[in-house]
Design goal:
11 helices; alpha/beta; three-stranded mixed sheet; binds uridine-5'-diphosphate-4-deoxy-4-fluoro-alpha-D-galactose; 333 residues
Length: 333
């Protein structure tokens, strides 16, 4: 079975390609390396002992996309390619909507014309906005996103629903990720953000390695057990395996539109992460309490029941595993 993985050299994409190749899927990567490095491809080859095809280019170029579908009989697409920095999206909304929405429209048009109607789409828990209750089920209200990144995911979800409504030959899985962290246990691939990391775990890792001086904890006055924000952190390898489950589901059911939360269903606070990182890795994390970050919410964690029941998806890695692997990758890179 041939799978086109857009953004396949990126953080979640690369881990997913490893798991796909391990399961003997044929992988075609489309990437423009705007936020990833070509070396990742050799690491994927090394980890799996298998090769994949690469198309380097931009999804905004429809001819380029069409050419990929003409040269390959693609059975399914996993669409990761997107910009993902929340703060940057506020400053560059046009770039974000163009890259995250127009590219999907091009992809869908080309898929339609090529009669390839199986798609796994990378969405985000951010579509729930500030949830009224936790844990969050897939039936919870969506909307109220606070930045163009989140809104771009919301828009694409709506586009996919409209598309399915118009043609129910489509077979679509929307995966709403909670907070992916950690790295491959080999330490060879992981998250490598450009510049100063915006997300918690890459930031903690850089403080641990001495590359950054101190972590700012954004607020300790939330209505949570220790006042710091609570999130549902999921190991990136578990998340990658969730994509395999989604592809298997699409192979089985043939048509439909399915939405799943991918999280572990446990909420950890920022202080839980700092303490756990320190204890599992025997390092000290300097931190200070800073004001709340604009747009942050207090609590967000998933109800993972639907993914477990319908996909058989059961993340097995603990917070300790996530933070050990994040540190291992940081030391390696
Ligand atoms: N935090 C800090 N200091 C930092 C960075 C983060 O205290 O330097 C805190 C945040 O305030 C929050 C928690 O750590 O309470 C997690 O923050 P992240 O930036 O790592 O993650 P977010 O929950 O803000 O957002 C992430 C992704 C989004 C995605 C969302 C889904 O960045 O793309 O998870 O829940 F949409």
């Amino acid at each position: 079975m041939k799978i086109l993985v857009t953004g396949g050299a990126g953080y979640i994409g690369s881990h997913t390609c490893v798991e796909l190749l391990n399961k003997n899927y044929q992988v075609i990567i489309l990437d423009n390396f705007s936020n990833s490095k070509k070396e990742v491809l050799d690491k994927i080859r090394f980890l799996t002992g298998k090769d994949m095809k690469l198309y380097e280019g931009n999804m905004l170029d429809k001819k380029f996309l069409m050419n990929i579908f003409q040269e390959n009989e693609i059975d399914c697409v996993i669409d990761f390619a997107a910009y993902k920095a929340v703060g940057e999206s506020v400053k560059k909304p046009v770039e974000y909507y163009t890259n995250n929405v127009s590219s999907v429209l091009n992809l869908l048009d080309v898929m339609q014309k090529s009669n390839c109607k199986s798609l796994v789409f990378s969405s985000s828990a951010t579509v729930y906005g500030d949830p009224k209750t936790v844990p969050i089920t897939e039936e919870a209200e969506i909307g109220g996103t606070t930045n163009p990144y989140g809104t771009s995911k919301l828009f694409v979800e709506q586009i996919l629903k409209d598309l399915y409504q118009s043609d129910n030959e489509w077979n679509i899985c929307i995966l709403r990720y909670f907070n992916p962290v950690g790295a491959h246990p080999s330490g060879l691939i992981g998250e490598d953000p450009k510049g100063i990391p915006a997300n918690l775990v890459p930031y903690i890792s850089k403080v641990a390695s001495g590359k950054l001086e101190s972590l700012s904890i954004f607020g300790n006055d939330y209505d949570t057990k220790d006042g710091t924000g609570i999130r549902d952190y999921i190991h990136v390898v578990d998340l990658a395996l969730g994509h395999i489950k989604a592809v298997e589901k699409l192979c089985k059911v043939k048509k439909g539109l399915h939405i799943y939360n991918l999280g572990i269903g446990i909420g950890y606070s920022v202080l839980d992460l700092v303490k756990t990182f320190e204890s599992v890795n025997c390092v000290k994390i300097n931190y200070k309490i800073s004001p709340r970050r604009a747009g942050d919410i207090a609590i967000c964690y998933s109800d993972p029941t639907k993914a477990k029941k319908e996909l058989g998806f059961e993340p097995s890695k603990t917070l300790e595993d996530m933070l050990k692997d994040a540190w291992n990758y940081e030391k390696n890179s």
